[in-house]
Amino acid sequence: MPSGFKGRRVRRKGICVITFVSLLTACRSAPEPIAMPERARAEVAAETLAYYAGSYELESPEPGTLKLEAGDGLLIATLDGQFAGLAFYPESATRFFAIEQPFEIEIAEDACGLTLFADGTQTHAERVVD
Length: 130
Prior knowledge:
Number of strands: 10
Largest sheet: 8 strands, antiparallel, barrel
Helix content: 10-25%
Structural class: mainly beta
Distance between the termini: 61 Å
Strand order of the largest sheet: 3-4-5-6-7-8-9-10
Low-confidence stretches: 15-28
Mean pLDDT: 80
Number of helices: 2
Strand content: over 45%
């Protein structure tokens, strides 16, 4: 029986069944979640954020359009069926990160494309004319 559990074993029809009577005790001893470190935020000019705003077509098996809007010192992203109004904060002039989800965006300096980093994958996107 796993350590930290108090229970008993009952044998029925050749099957060993473990009944747990103190599952709460085991849950209380679980480690606390690790807090993500605070990331430094860069200041990016409003004109630069407005330049990045637009629609970007994702190059993935499931096509989609990532829409970026310029906000107050950040970019606001919407991806149909995935998320809406997700804030991306600048880490540099071309690199942005989200706090609510483990996503990052790196925008090409000419803003003709970007790379979306999510769940350990990189998805490229080309800018489309709105």
